[in-house]
Every structure is written in C-alpha cells, then in structure tokens.
C-alpha cells in the first residue's frame, strides 16, 4: 500500500481552534447595512443603553438634559462611523465576531432595560466620571452644559471599558465552546464529506 490509507484506521482529527476558522469564509453572505440603517441601529443601542445613566444624571447634573443628549448622540455618531468603516474587514466579517458583538451589546441592552441592574452597573462609572469632572473643573461643573457633557462622555468611555472586559470574558467562553460544539456536531451528524 503505497500512498493509500487503511480504511479501518481512524481519521486524523485536529480539534484546534485555528483549524475551525481556516475553513470559514472570509465574507458573510449577507448584505451590509446602509449608512442610515447603521446610524439608526447605533442611535437605538446608545439611547437604550443610556437610560439608567440618564435617570441618575438628571439628579446629579441639575437637569442638563441637552448636555447628556449631546454626549449620547456623540457616542452614537462615533459608533456609526466605526461600524460603517470596519464592516468589510476580515475580523468584523467573521462569524465569531458577529456572535461576540451580539452577545455583548445584547447583554448591555438587557441590563439597561432591567432598571435595578442597569442602575447598579451604571452608578460606579458615573460616580467616577462625576468625581473626575469635579476635580478637573470644580464642584459645580456637572451642573453646567460642558461639565455635564464631559461627564456623560467620560462615563461612556468607562462603560465601554467595562464592556470590553466583559467582551473579553465572553470571547474566552466562546473560544472554549466552539471546539465542543463542533465535536458535538460531528458526533450527531457524522464527519463532513467532501464532494
């Protein structure tokens, strides 16, 4: 038997994660969102995510609604441009990244809708942002437009850092689950046959 494989020998299987992604197509077969749809998506996500902070911020900023709305709008615009500019990159088109972003932002939206949880999650970054604003610009700074907007932007940066840490943990869990799910699929349906 020169280059023939023994039919009774177990096939070589490599359960490495890198192998799992080598066969994945680089581009998904879905139409990318238009700029307007992307902007609407991020406006909704940023608005819903900001509700717990907005409720608390109304008290701290003495009703600086316009400043907080401007901060939220700036985040929505930033996310829109970042999303729209990176939509065709290999990293953004991977199925793994799609699942990761949906889990992270879905969790954030869920936490924001459930008010007691959203308040607890948002209170610490908000208190830190308020303290930094007051130490830089004075005790009354959050009560004025620029101070309230700076506090809103700073809290958004802190919340995004928290989401990045959470996203890293979710990524680790997903990386652990992908080989197990792939093995389960092979066990249930058999190996993929090349035609």
Explained architecture:
The protein has 195 residues and is an all-alpha fold. It has one domain. The protein is 74% helix and 0% strand. Helix 6 crosses helix 7 (145-189). The longest helix is centred in the last third of the chain and has 45 residues, at 145-189. The mean pLDDT is 85.
Features:
195 residues, 7 helices, 74% helix, mainly alpha, elongated
In short:
With 195 residues, the chain is mostly helical. Helix content is 74%, strand content 0%.
* Fraction of helical residues: over 70%
Radius of gyration of CA atoms, rounded to a whole number? 23 Å
**If you average the pLDDT, what whole number results?**
85
Counted up, domains total 1
State the total count of DSSP E strands: 0
Q: How much strand?
A: under 5%
H-E order: HHHHHHH
Largest sheet: none
- What is the first-to-last residue Cα distance? 24 Å
**Uncertain residue segments:** none
The number of helices is 7
Gross morphology? elongated
Q: Which class of secondary structure composition applies to the elements?
A: mainly alpha
Give the topology, please.
Elements: H1 17-22, H2 35-60, H3 65-86, H4 90-93, H5 95-113, H6 115-137, H7 145-189
């Amino acid at each position: 038997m020169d280059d023939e494989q023994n039919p009774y020998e177990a096939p070589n299987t490599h359960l490495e994660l890198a192998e799992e992604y080598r066969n994945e197509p680089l581009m998904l077969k879905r139409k990318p969102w238009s700029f307007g749809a992307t902007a609407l998506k991020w406006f909704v996500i940023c608005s819903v995510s900001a509700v717990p902070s907005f409720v608390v911020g109304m008290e701290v900023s003495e009703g600086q609604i316009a400043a907080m709305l401007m901060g939220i709008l700036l985040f929505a615009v930033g996310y829109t441009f970042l999303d729209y500019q990176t939509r065709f990159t290999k990293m953004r088109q991977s199925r793994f990244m799609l699942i990761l972003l949906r889990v992270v932002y879905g969790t954030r939206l869920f936490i924001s809708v459930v008010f007691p949880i959203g308040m607890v999650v948002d209170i610490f970054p908000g208190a830190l942002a308020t303290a930094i604003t007051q130490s830089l610009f004075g005790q009354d700074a959050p009560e004025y437009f620029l101070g309230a907007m700076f506090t809103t932007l700073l809290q958004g940066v802190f919340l995004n850092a928290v989401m990045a840490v959470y996203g890293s943990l979710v990524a680790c869990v997903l990386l652990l689950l992908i080989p197990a799910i792939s093995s389960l699929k092979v066990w249930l349906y058999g190996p993929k046959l090349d035609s």
